[in-house]
UniProtKB/TrEMBL annotation:
GO terms for molecular function: acetyl-CoA carboxylase activity; propionyl-CoA carboxylase activity. InterPro entries: ACC_epsilon. The lineage of its organism: Bacteria, Bacillati, Actinomycetota, Actinomycetes, Micrococcales. This is Acyl-CoA carboxylase epsilon subunit.
Length: 73
């Protein structure tokens, strides 16, 4: 994580002159909207068929570094 990604957001007033109270109100409204949107953002569950539900997982690859049986040579 770099110094630029510290979570700080820069707000620029392009026209007029906003007071501190107006900026605080803007930040409060945007923060509340962000929290509401984040709470509603839920990934849809992928539908699973009966075939997929009963399917076995893939076997792990064979480990060649472990000898088979009682001999290692």
């Amino acid at each position: 994580m770099s110094a630029e990604d510290d979570g700080a957001v820069e707000i620029q007033v392009l026209r007029g002159s906003a007071t501190e109270e107006e900026l605080a109100a803007l930040i409060a409204v945007l923060s509340e909207a962000f929290v509401a949107e984040e709470a509603d953002a839920v990934a849809a569950e992928k539908p699973v068929s009966a075939w997929g539900r009963t399917q076995r997982g893939l076997r792990a690859p064979l480990r060649r570094d472990i000898p088979w049986g009682r001999f290692s040579g």
